[in-house]
Protein backbone atom coordinates (compact mmCIF):
# COMPACT_ATOMS: atom_id res chain seq x y z
CA UNK A 1 0.00 0.00 0.00
CA UNK A 2 1.24 3.49 -0.77
CA UNK A 3 1.85 5.61 2.29
CA UNK A 4 -0.30 8.40 0.90
CA UNK A 5 -3.24 6.12 0.16
CA UNK A 6 -4.59 4.41 3.31
CA UNK A 7 -7.66 2.98 1.59
CA UNK A 8 -7.90 -0.37 -0.15
CA UNK A 9 -6.65 -3.82 0.66
CA UNK A 10 -3.75 -4.20 3.04
CA UNK A 11 -0.79 -6.23 1.87
CA UNK A 12 0.45 -8.42 4.69
CA UNK A 13 4.11 -8.28 5.78
CA UNK A 14 6.15 -11.43 5.10
CA UNK A 15 5.62 -14.14 7.66
CA UNK A 16 2.13 -13.14 8.75
CA UNK A 17 -1.17 -14.94 8.33
CA UNK A 18 -3.53 -13.10 5.97
CA UNK A 19 -6.68 -11.88 7.75
CA UNK A 20 -9.68 -14.09 7.29
CA UNK A 21 -7.65 -17.27 6.81
CA UNK A 22 -8.11 -18.26 10.42
CA UNK A 23 -11.34 -17.23 12.06
CA UNK A 24 -10.99 -15.48 15.40
CA UNK A 25 -13.52 -17.94 16.78
CA UNK A 26 -10.74 -20.54 16.81
CA UNK A 27 -9.50 -18.67 19.88
CA UNK A 28 -12.93 -18.64 21.52
CA UNK A 29 -14.31 -22.14 22.12
CA UNK A 30 -17.02 -20.70 24.36
CA UNK A 31 -18.88 -19.63 21.23
CA UNK A 32 -22.17 -21.39 20.61
CA UNK A 33 -22.79 -22.74 17.13
CA UNK A 34 -26.53 -22.92 17.70
CA UNK A 35 -29.02 -21.17 15.48
CA UNK A 36 -30.17 -17.62 16.10
CA UNK A 37 -33.16 -15.62 14.94
CA UNK A 38 -31.11 -12.49 14.40
CA UNK A 39 -31.37 -11.52 10.70
CA UNK A 40 -27.85 -10.03 10.60
CA UNK A 41 -25.93 -13.07 11.77
CA UNK A 42 -23.41 -14.27 9.21
CA UNK A 43 -24.27 -11.57 6.71
CA UNK A 44 -21.88 -8.93 5.41
CA UNK A 45 -23.40 -5.55 4.72
CA UNK A 46 -21.74 -2.21 4.19
CA UNK A 47 -21.91 1.39 5.27
CA UNK A 48 -25.31 3.07 5.54
CA UNK A 49 -27.19 -0.14 4.82
CA UNK A 50 -25.50 -1.81 7.75
CA UNK A 51 -26.09 1.13 10.11
CA UNK A 52 -29.79 1.17 9.20
CA UNK A 53 -30.21 -2.56 9.75
CA UNK A 54 -28.30 -2.40 13.02
CA UNK A 55 -31.35 -0.74 14.55
CA UNK A 56 -32.94 -4.19 14.55
CA UNK A 57 -30.22 -5.69 16.75
CA UNK A 58 -30.74 -5.73 20.49
CA UNK A 59 -27.99 -3.33 21.56
CA UNK A 60 -28.13 -4.83 25.05
CA UNK A 61 -26.32 -7.83 23.57
CA UNK A 62 -23.01 -6.06 24.16
CA UNK A 63 -23.75 -5.36 27.85
CA UNK A 64 -24.37 -8.80 29.33
CA UNK A 65 -21.04 -9.43 31.02
CA UNK A 66 -22.61 -9.38 34.51
CA UNK A 67 -25.22 -12.05 33.87
CA UNK A 68 -24.67 -14.61 36.62
CA UNK A 69 -21.61 -16.76 35.98
CA UNK A 70 -20.63 -15.18 32.65
CA UNK A 71 -17.72 -13.05 33.91
CA UNK A 72 -16.34 -15.99 35.85
CA UNK A 73 -16.62 -18.35 32.87
CA UNK A 74 -14.85 -15.89 30.58
CA UNK A 75 -12.12 -15.22 33.14
CA UNK A 76 -11.54 -18.95 33.59
CA UNK A 77 -11.16 -19.37 29.85
CA UNK A 78 -8.81 -16.39 29.58
CA UNK A 79 -6.68 -17.81 32.38
CA UNK A 80 -6.46 -21.39 31.08
CA UNK A 81 -6.45 -21.11 27.29
CA UNK A 82 -2.96 -21.43 25.74
CA UNK A 83 -4.23 -19.50 22.70
CA UNK A 84 -5.40 -16.61 24.87
CA UNK A 85 -2.09 -16.56 26.73
CA UNK A 86 -0.20 -16.48 23.43
CA UNK A 87 -2.44 -13.67 22.21
CA UNK A 88 -1.73 -11.63 25.34
CA UNK A 89 1.98 -12.14 24.67
CA UNK A 90 1.45 -10.51 21.28
CA UNK A 91 -0.50 -7.63 22.79
CA UNK A 92 2.28 -7.04 25.30
CA UNK A 93 4.82 -7.10 22.46
CA UNK A 94 2.70 -4.56 20.60
CA UNK A 95 2.71 -2.29 23.63
CA UNK A 96 6.50 -2.25 23.80
CA UNK A 97 6.41 -0.28 20.55
CA UNK A 98 4.39 2.53 22.11
CA UNK A 99 5.40 2.34 25.78
CA UNK A 100 9.19 2.75 25.69
CA UNK A 101 9.46 3.38 29.44
CA UNK A 102 7.11 2.96 32.44
CA UNK A 103 6.71 6.71 32.89
CA UNK A 104 3.65 7.25 30.68
CA UNK A 105 0.02 7.55 31.75
CA UNK A 106 -1.95 4.67 30.23
CA UNK A 107 -5.70 4.08 29.96
CA UNK A 108 -7.12 0.69 29.01
CA UNK A 109 -10.77 0.74 28.00
CA UNK A 110 -12.38 -2.69 28.34
CA UNK A 111 -9.76 -3.81 30.85
CA UNK A 112 -11.84 -6.79 32.03
CA UNK A 113 -10.21 -8.63 34.92
CA UNK A 114 -6.79 -7.08 34.40
CA UNK A 115 -5.11 -9.69 32.24
CA UNK A 116 -3.40 -7.05 30.09
CA UNK A 117 -2.51 -4.98 33.16
CA UNK A 118 -0.75 -8.09 34.48
CA UNK A 119 1.47 -8.15 31.37
CA UNK A 120 2.24 -4.43 31.34
CA UNK A 121 3.09 -3.75 35.00
CA UNK A 122 5.74 -2.90 36.06
CA UNK A 123 7.97 -3.34 32.99
CA UNK A 124 5.99 -1.11 30.61
CA UNK A 125 3.66 0.81 32.93
CA UNK A 126 4.08 1.86 36.55
CA UNK A 127 1.18 0.84 38.81
CA UNK A 128 0.27 4.43 39.61
CA UNK A 129 0.27 5.40 35.91
CA UNK A 130 -2.26 2.74 34.80
CA UNK A 131 -6.05 3.19 34.74
CA UNK A 132 -8.44 0.47 33.62
CA UNK A 133 -12.09 1.09 32.71
CA UNK A 134 -14.74 -1.54 32.12
CA UNK A 135 -18.51 -1.81 31.91
CA UNK A 136 -18.62 -5.06 33.91
CA UNK A 137 -18.73 -4.66 37.68
CA UNK A 138 -18.11 -8.39 38.07
CA UNK A 139 -14.94 -8.34 36.01
CA UNK A 140 -13.73 -5.25 37.84
CA UNK A 141 -14.34 -6.99 41.17
CA UNK A 142 -12.24 -9.96 40.03
CA UNK A 143 -9.50 -7.60 38.86
CA UNK A 144 -9.47 -5.54 42.06
CA UNK A 145 -9.22 -8.66 44.20
CA UNK A 146 -6.35 -10.05 42.15
CA UNK A 147 -4.50 -6.76 41.60
CA UNK A 148 -5.19 -4.50 44.59
CA UNK A 149 -2.62 -1.91 43.47
CA UNK A 150 -4.33 -1.34 40.14
CA UNK A 151 -6.77 1.48 39.46
CA UNK A 152 -9.91 -0.10 38.02
CA UNK A 153 -12.94 2.11 37.36
CA UNK A 154 -16.46 1.42 36.14
CA UNK A 155 -17.18 3.31 32.96
CA UNK A 156 -18.59 3.38 29.45
CA UNK A 157 -16.23 3.85 26.51
CA UNK A 158 -18.80 6.06 24.77
CA UNK A 159 -18.48 8.73 27.48
CA UNK A 160 -15.10 8.55 29.21
CA UNK A 161 -15.03 10.84 32.23
CA UNK A 162 -11.51 12.13 31.64
CA UNK A 163 -10.20 15.42 30.28
CA UNK A 164 -8.88 15.75 26.75
CA UNK A 165 -5.36 14.33 26.60
CA UNK A 166 -5.53 12.96 30.14
CA UNK A 167 -3.35 9.97 29.18
CA UNK A 168 -0.30 9.50 27.02
CA UNK A 169 -1.64 6.28 25.50
CA UNK A 170 -5.13 4.76 25.39
CA UNK A 171 -5.73 1.08 24.67
CA UNK A 172 -8.80 -0.95 23.68
CA UNK A 173 -8.03 -4.60 23.03
CA UNK A 174 -10.80 -6.89 21.71
CA UNK A 175 -13.41 -4.23 22.48
CA UNK A 176 -14.76 -2.65 19.30
CA UNK A 177 -15.99 -6.01 18.02
CA UNK A 178 -18.58 -6.05 20.81
CA UNK A 179 -19.97 -2.55 20.19
CA UNK A 180 -23.07 -1.56 18.20
CA UNK A 181 -21.32 1.65 17.05
CA UNK A 182 -17.57 2.18 16.82
CA UNK A 183 -17.18 5.75 15.53
CA UNK A 184 -18.14 7.54 18.77
CA UNK A 185 -16.05 5.05 20.75
CA UNK A 186 -12.95 5.70 18.64
CA UNK A 187 -13.50 9.45 18.96
CA UNK A 188 -13.41 9.11 22.76
CA UNK A 189 -10.38 6.80 22.68
CA UNK A 190 -8.43 9.37 20.66
CA UNK A 191 -9.75 12.36 22.62
CA UNK A 192 -8.24 11.22 25.93
CA UNK A 193 -4.85 10.30 24.40
CA UNK A 194 -2.05 12.87 24.21
CA UNK A 195 0.11 10.66 22.00
CA UNK A 196 -1.40 7.43 20.71
CA UNK A 197 -4.70 5.53 20.74
CA UNK A 198 -4.51 1.81 19.96
CA UNK A 199 -7.35 -0.63 19.29
CA UNK A 200 -7.51 -4.16 17.92
CA UNK A 201 -10.00 -5.78 15.56
CA UNK A 202 -10.63 -9.12 13.88
CA UNK A 203 -10.99 -8.08 10.24
CA UNK A 204 -13.74 -8.98 7.83
CA UNK A 205 -12.52 -11.30 5.07
CA UNK A 206 -13.43 -8.86 2.28
CA UNK A 207 -11.76 -5.46 2.11
CA UNK A 208 -14.72 -3.81 0.40
CA UNK A 209 -16.08 -1.60 3.15
CA UNK A 210 -18.13 -4.35 4.79
CA UNK A 211 -19.09 -5.45 8.27
CA UNK A 212 -19.70 -9.04 9.36
CA UNK A 213 -21.96 -9.67 12.35
CA UNK A 214 -22.51 -12.73 14.47
CA UNK A 215 -23.51 -13.53 18.00
CA UNK A 216 -21.96 -15.63 20.72
CA UNK A 217 -23.79 -17.39 23.52
CA UNK A 218 -22.20 -17.93 26.94
CA UNK A 219 -24.32 -19.50 29.68
CA UNK A 220 -27.48 -18.34 27.96
CA UNK A 221 -26.33 -14.73 27.46
CA UNK A 222 -25.93 -13.56 23.87
CA UNK A 223 -23.10 -11.26 22.81
CA UNK A 224 -22.65 -9.13 19.71
CA UNK A 225 -19.55 -9.77 17.59
CA UNK A 226 -18.55 -7.58 14.66
CA UNK A 227 -15.69 -7.85 12.19
CA UNK A 228 -14.72 -4.85 10.05
CA UNK A 229 -12.95 -4.33 6.78
CA UNK A 230 -10.03 -1.92 6.61
CA UNK A 231 -11.98 0.52 4.44
CA UNK A 232 -14.91 0.59 6.85
CA UNK A 233 -12.60 1.40 9.77
CA UNK A 234 -10.91 4.19 7.83
CA UNK A 235 -14.31 5.64 7.00
CA UNK A 236 -15.33 5.63 10.65
CA UNK A 237 -12.09 7.29 11.73
CA UNK A 238 -12.39 10.01 9.10
CA UNK A 239 -16.07 10.63 9.83
CA UNK A 240 -15.76 10.88 13.59
CA UNK A 241 -12.30 12.49 13.84
CA UNK A 242 -12.36 15.03 10.98
CA UNK A 243 -10.34 17.65 12.87
CA UNK A 244 -7.57 15.38 14.18
CA UNK A 245 -4.10 15.16 12.62
CA UNK A 246 -3.25 11.45 12.88
CA UNK A 247 -0.69 9.00 11.56
CA UNK A 248 -1.95 5.43 11.20
CA UNK A 249 0.14 2.34 11.84
CA UNK A 250 -1.33 -1.14 11.40
CA UNK A 251 0.15 -4.16 13.14
CA UNK A 252 -0.66 -7.78 12.26
CA UNK A 253 -0.89 -10.05 15.30
CA UNK A 254 -0.64 -13.79 14.76
CA UNK A 255 -3.78 -15.27 13.23
CA UNK A 256 -4.85 -12.08 11.51
CA UNK A 257 -5.88 -9.85 14.39
CA UNK A 258 -5.04 -6.26 13.52
CA UNK A 259 -3.90 -3.44 15.76
CA UNK A 260 -4.65 0.12 14.66
CA UNK A 261 -2.43 2.77 16.25
CA UNK A 262 -3.49 6.38 15.76
CA UNK A 263 -0.58 8.67 16.61
CA UNK A 264 -1.07 12.40 16.97
CA UNK A 265 1.13 14.63 14.83
CA UNK A 266 1.61 18.30 14.13
CA UNK A 267 0.14 19.73 10.99
CA UNK A 268 -3.14 19.95 9.15
CA UNK A 269 -6.01 17.60 10.03
CA UNK A 270 -6.20 14.31 8.24
CA UNK A 271 -5.35 10.62 8.40
CA UNK A 272 -2.01 9.51 6.92
CA UNK A 273 -1.03 5.85 6.59
CA UNK A 274 2.60 5.36 7.66
CA UNK A 275 3.41 1.66 7.96
CA UNK A 276 2.22 -1.94 8.18
CA UNK A 277 4.22 -4.23 10.44
CA UNK A 278 4.11 -7.73 11.97
CA UNK A 279 3.93 -8.10 15.75
CA UNK A 280 5.98 -10.93 17.21
CA UNK A 281 6.20 -11.99 20.85
Keywords, please?
disordered N terminus; 11 strands; eight-stranded mixed sheet; Rossmann fold; single chain; 281 residues; globular; alpha/beta
Secondary structure blueprint with pairings:
Elements: E1 44-46, H1 47-53, H2 70-80, H3 82-98, E2 106-109, H4 115-120, E3 130-134, H5 137-146, E4 152-154, E5 167-172, H6 183-191, E6 193-201, E7 210-218, E8 221-228, H7 230-240, E9 245-253, E10 257-264, E11 270-279
Parallel strand pairs: 2-3, 2-5, 3-4, 5-6, 9-11
Antiparallel strand pairs: 1-7, 6-10, 7-8, 9-10
Helix pairs in contact: 6-7
Could you please describe the fold and organization of this structure?
The protein has 281 residues and is of the alpha/beta class. The chain has a single domain (40-279), classed as Vaccinia Virus protein VP39 (Rossmann fold). It is built from seven helices and eleven strands. Mean pLDDT is 78; it is low at 1-8 and 13-60.
Amino acid sequence: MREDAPGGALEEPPGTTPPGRQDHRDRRPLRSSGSTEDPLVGQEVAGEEHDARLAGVRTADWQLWDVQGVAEAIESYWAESPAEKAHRDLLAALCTRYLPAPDLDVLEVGCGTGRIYERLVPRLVANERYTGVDLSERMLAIGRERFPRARFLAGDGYGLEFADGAFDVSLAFEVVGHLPEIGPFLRELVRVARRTAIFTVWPAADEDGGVVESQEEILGARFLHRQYSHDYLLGQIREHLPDAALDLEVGILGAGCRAYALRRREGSPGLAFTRLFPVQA
